[in-house]
Amino acid sequence: MPKPHWQRRVLQEVVAVARQGWLIPQRPGRLRQHADAEHLVVFIHGFFASSGVFRPMAFALAHEGLAPRQVHFDYAPIGSIEGNARRLAKVIEEARVPGPVTVIAHSLGGLIARHAIQHLGVRVDALVTLGTPHHGTPHARPWPLRLAKELSPGSLPLTSLAATRHRLEATEVTSIVASSDVLVHADSSALDGSRVVHIDGVGHHGVLYDPRAWEAVREAIRSAVRRGAGAAVEAPPAPNVTDRAG
Predict the structure, then answer these.
(1) In CATH, what number does 5-230 get?
(2) Using an 8 Å Cβ cutoff, are 224 and 174 in contact?
(3) Per-residue pLDDT for 50 more than 60?
């Protein structure tokens, strides 16, 4: 007799968590260059994880030529959203390329990316969040860590991000919502005004390895590259300074 849907989903999430336990120690290094690239793809993991959780997706995108130049941003489960965002801003600036920047962020990583964009003015052309608690999650309230408390609904960082949502207007945002996510409710992981992609049958961790989520990431990267190419074509030619009279 086949297992009920809820049992299969629980089992899938358990497998995803076990997979992360194997991937977390396998950090790929901050900057990975697979080929020459005009655009940059930045990966930001979630709470109590590492850049290793993005290894399967990052490898596939590099193999497909969609993310030849990658930054993998790591942070410890301490500090604050603002402090980690300042580190992220510096890392992106150091890895800057002439073309567009796409950020792929899981859970808390999406809030760190938003702070960098909305409060520090970091230019990001496309942002994809997977299971990010844009409006917080009540599951964070019991945790004593400051970074966890900032994930609680109504926290000062979340209130500030909501008040400055308009500063994301220049960034194409995709919210990937896992329907079986028990840590972050669907209403919280779908950012207002963004392109929302619902992934049925996966949980908070399993969404990182779901092919439908990967396809949404691919489309976000392609869209950012297309927009970047269009901007380059429309830009007026730079003045030839050698023609200026002395």
Answers:
(1) 3.40.50.1820
(2) no
(3) yes
